[in-house]
């Protein structure tokens, strides 16, 4: 059973090592992890970004499930590139799992980045746009997609010291995926 | 032909009016716009967020295409909720279109929010994570998904004064969708 390993992990300076660790955790549970950086891409090619896209899409099409890292990325919410992949896999009717190493409510996290005020019973940001306030960890589309197309988002009880490298919540996802994929 | 109208537009104070305008533009081109706020949801219900998700997913399943508003939202990139929907529609093999009212390159936009430095031939943000630098307007997954599963991202030559309400780029998408959907 193949699991697509999505996340902004690919942007870390030690991205290859993180991928190796994630694949090893998958293997320990009898699963095969597919990591974007496993695709050999010539980054100096003029169409490098398209090659990366096509490689990732082919990996997703080959996978039975996705485990997405939704830890907040450059702001209050998850990495849009990773979220695209979660949506794509939900659309392909694959098993969807994800974790975030920051379990705070989305509205509380927005308030870390900008002033959030209350206006006629809704929370608004500095641009006057509503801040989603359902007590969920991120946008409701991802949270309920996981619940209805896979397993609920996994978050740690306490944010790990190194939120980009702690793989405890990731391993919980792998364990759940192994249980679900073996059962089908 | 039905078009799902995705975007953080639903978070605007005049969200209903924007939806009305978008649906009117669709109708003028012979298409039917489906807007998330058309679903009647009781926001005081304990499962309101799940109801919204299920309503949006049913709308997407009923639609032939998506036009996503990828104008940057609370940071350098697109709204993750909208991006989830774009991914979902690509996964369902529906026609994918999108616009962004900010046509700047992603790497330049990140630099508006935080210090970006150059390190061993890659751009990195304040956390040491690579900043994608392919000259694209947003993450390569969305940009190439549009190119390969629909029409390339539409951006204005100049950012409109009211980036949340200017519908010129949106109407370009509608025109392209009408051409593609009638042709099939």
Structure described in brief:
The first copy, chain A, is an alpha/beta fold and 184 residues long. The first copy, chain A, contains 6 helices and 6 strands.
Structure, described:
Two copies of one chain form a homodimer. By secondary structure, chain A is an alpha/beta fold. Chain A has two domains: 2-102 and 138-183, Rossmann fold, CATH 3.40.50; 104-136, no CATH class. Helix content of chain A is 41%, strand content 13%. Chain A has six helices and six strands. The model of chain A has no long low-confidence stretch (mean pLDDT 95). At the A-B interface, helix 2, helix 3 and helix 5 of A face helix 2, helix 3 and helix 5 of B.
Key words describing this protein structure:
homodimer, 184 residues, alpha/beta, 2 domains, 4-stranded parallel beta sheet, two-stranded antiparallel ribbon, 6 helices, 13% strand, globular
């Amino acid at each position: 059973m193949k699991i697509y390993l999505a996340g902004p992990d690919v942007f870390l300076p030690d991205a290859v090592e993180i991928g190796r660790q994630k694949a090893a955790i998958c293997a320990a549970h009898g699963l095969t992890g597919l990591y974007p950086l496993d695709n050999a891409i010539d980054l100096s090619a003029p169409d490098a970004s398209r090659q990366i896209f096509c490689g990732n899409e082919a990996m997703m099409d080959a996978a039975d499930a996705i485990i997405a890292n939704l830890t907040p990325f450059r702001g209050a919410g998850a990495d849009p590139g990773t979220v695209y992949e979660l949506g794509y896999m939900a659309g392909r009717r694959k098993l969807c799992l994800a974790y975030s190493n920051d379990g705070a409510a989305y509205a509380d996290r927005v308030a870390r980045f900008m002033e959030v005020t209350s206006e006629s019973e809704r929370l608004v940001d500095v641009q006057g746009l509503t801040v989603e306030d359902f007590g969920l960890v991120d946008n409701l589309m991802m949270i309920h997609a996981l619940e209805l197309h896979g397993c609920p988002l996994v978050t740690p009880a306490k944010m790990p010291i190194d939120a980009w490298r702690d793989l405890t919540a990731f391993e919980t996802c792998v364990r759940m995926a192994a249980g679900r994929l073996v059962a089908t």
